[in-house]
Design goal:
mainly alpha, single chain
Length: 84
C-alpha cells in the first residue's frame, strides 16, 4: 500500500510540474521577446520610419523571434523551460 501511495504522489507532483511548465513557457517566451524588441520601435523612428513602418517592423521582429524561440534553437536558448 505504501508503494502505491508513493507512486500516486510522484505522479501527482509530476502532473503539477508539467502543468506549470505549460503555463510558464509562453510567459517566459513573451517576456524574452518583450525585452529584446522594446527598443525596435524607437530605433526605427529615429532612423526616419513612419509610425506605421516602425510598428510593422517591431511586430515583424517580435513574430520572427517568437518563431525562433519555438524552434530547436529556442529549446537550446531556453532549456530550463523543458524540465528534461
Amino acid at each position: 500500500m505504501t508503494k502505491l501511495n508513493e507512486r500516486k504522489a510522484i505522479q501527482y507532483v509530476d502532473d503539477i510540474v508539467k502543468e506549470a511548465q505549460n503555463i510558464s513557457e509562453p510567459l517566459a517566451r513573451a517576456y524574452m521577446i518583450g525585452l529584446t524588441v522594446q527598443d525596435t520601435y524607437g530605433e526605427a523612428k529615429a532612423a526616419g520610419a513612419s509610425d506605421m513602418e516602425a510598428a510593422l517592423l517591431t511586430l515583424g521582429y517580435a513574430w520572427g523571434e517568437n518563431k525562433l524561440l519555438k524552434s530547436d534553437i529556442g529549446r537550446w536558448i531556453m532549456p530550463e523551460l523543458k524540465g528534461d
